[in-house]
């Protein structure tokens, strides 16, 4: 009897939970939903804003607020670190609205979203720079900002995009430098030389490119390639590392 009572109570609780969840977003006119979402956005309550905007998007996908709802969702997803949904919403918006007046902002947000994917909670908490982690999101962000500058040269987001591209270029160069260092420690001399030359070719104006000359010289010395050692030493004098 006791077991039956507990089971019954659990069933009632589950049903009550489902019922209350369905009532979180009331069935109100779209203007009311949108106003509530805007209030949540302005106060930084991203969870509430997303709930209202998602309800508005699902109930009125072709309504008067459709485009603005998508734009607001992109921002709210980014601020709440829901990066996968943010990226999906960005791709959807650009696919359906390639010539939208705010398309440059959406491309800019795609770059920010990819940049955010390159960090981790632990790295942020302990202020750790792990240049050897997979840089794919940073490469995607660099491509996004480059596209923004090419496609929308007059965009108000161009200046910030340029600054972020400098940061990303150093991030990518440092990754290749860390990879070259890994090859040196493993005594994979040819692989180390190739990666050093890649840093110098792709990111010639970075500190990583200058640092890579040291690793390249070490690899040439181990291979007894004296002419290459001397050439690298000359390059090091012309491009001293800090």
Automatic annotation (TrEMBL):
A GO BP term here is: Gram-negative-bacterium-type cell outer membrane assembly
Could you say which protein family the record assigns here? Answer: Belongs to the BamD family.
Q: Does the keyword Lipoprotein apply?
A: yes
The signal peptide stretch is: 1-21
- Asked whether the keyword Lyase is assigned, the reply is no
Q: What is this protein called?
A: Outer membrane protein assembly factor BamD
InterPro entries assigned to the protein according to its UniProt record, in alphabetical order: BamD, BamD-like, TPR-like_helical_dom_sf
Native organism is: Photobacterium leiognathi
Q: Which intervals hold domain Outer membrane lipoprotein BamD-like?
A: 27-234
Q: Gene name on record?
A: bamD
What's the subunit arrangement here? Part of the Bam complex.
Query: Which lineage?
Result: Bacteria, Pseudomonadati, Pseudomonadota, Gammaproteobacteria, Vibrionales
């Amino acid at each position: 009897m006791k077991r039956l009572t507990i089971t019954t109570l659990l069933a009632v609780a589950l049903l009550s939970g489902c019922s209350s969840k369905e009532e979180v977003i009331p069935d109100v006119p779209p203007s009311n939903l949108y106003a509530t979402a805007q209030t949540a956005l302005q106060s930084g309550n991203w969870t509430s804003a997303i709930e209202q905007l998602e309800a508005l998007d699902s109930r009125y996908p072709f309504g008067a607020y459709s485009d603005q709802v998508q734009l607001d969702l992109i921002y709210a997803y980014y601020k709440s670190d829901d990066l996968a949904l943010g990226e999906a919403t960005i791709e959807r918006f650009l696919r359906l609205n390639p010539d939208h007046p705010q398309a440059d902002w959406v491309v800019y947000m795609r770059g920010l979203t990819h940049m955010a994917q390159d960090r981790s909670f632990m790295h942020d908490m302990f202020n750790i720079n792990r240049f050897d982690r997979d840089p794919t999101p940073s490469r995607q962000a660099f491509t996004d900002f480059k596209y923004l500058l090419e496609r929308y040269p007059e965009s108000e987001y161009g200046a910030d995009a340029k600054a972020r591209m400098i940061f990303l270029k150093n991030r990518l160069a440092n990754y290749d430098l860390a990879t070259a260092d890994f090859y040196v420690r493993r005594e994979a001399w040819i692989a180390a030389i190739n990666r050093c030359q890649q840093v110098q070719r792709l990111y010639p104006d970075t500190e990583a490119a200058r640092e890579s000359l040291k690793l390249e010289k070490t690899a040439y010395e181990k291979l007894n390639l004296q002419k290459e050692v001397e050439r690298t030493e000359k390059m090091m004098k012309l491009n001293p590392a800090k």
